[in-house]
Amino acid sequence: MKTDVTPFPVRRIEAAVLGASAGGIDALLRMLHDLPLPWHLPLVVVLHLPEGHESHLAEIFAERLQVPVHEAADKMPLAAGHVYFAPPGYHLSIERNRRFSLSCEPPVRFSRPSIDVLMASAADAYGPALAGILLTGANDDGAEGLQRIHLAGGITAVQDPNEAQISIMPEAAIALHSPDHVLPLRELRALLLQLESAHVH
């Protein structure tokens, strides 16, 4: 067994959902760069952008990551080993048939897409086979969604507020429930790699 990272008790996870706002691009790039290939675990990301702001997230990350990156589209099935970003101006949900759904419902906690909406729907779709990770951010979106993942039996993790560029988002999640892991980015990356390893074996 490798000893260069702290081993986490890990069970088989079928998808991971990630949320961030202010400071999130840098945090995600640090966490997802050079993911080992082949990669199998689907990753779905809501990253807050200003409303009406054209999103180039998929392009930015596709240029920097080795794994396939897409902007999620309505009815698109989640594919193994792909990274998906919520398009701006829509809520992104995951249906029980493991396909995406986009909606124009009103913003939740001033955000559309909402991290809470993605995480709550993913918790319903995947139950205990889901991991939720919340990173740096300037509001409390994601706290309730992460709690829903916890209540469904999934794994929850937040970025250490002391390391986060903006600590409000991880602090809100910690205040609402005790996440399974509160870790700096380097160790969140190690957790993701171990979830991938458990997913494959």
Mean pLDDT rating = 91
The major β-sheet equals: 7 strands, parallel
CATH level-4 homologous superfamily = Methylesterase CheB, C-terminal domain
End-to-end separation? 14 Å
Q: Which overall shape is indicated by the principal axes computed on the Cα atoms?
A: globular
Order of helices and strands: EHEHEEEEHEHEHEH
Q: How many strand segments?
A: 9
Helical content class:
25-40%
Uncertain residue ranges? none
* Number of helical regions: 6
Going across the biggest sheet, name each strand in turn: 3-4-2-1-7-8-9
Count of structural domains: 1
The assigned CATH architecture is 3-Layer(aba) Sandwich
Reading off the top of the CATH hierarchy, the class is best stated as: Alpha Beta
Helix/strand/pairing class, anyone? alpha/beta
Strand content: 15-25%
CATH topology, anyone? Rossmann fold
- What is the gyration radius calculated from CA atoms? 15 Å
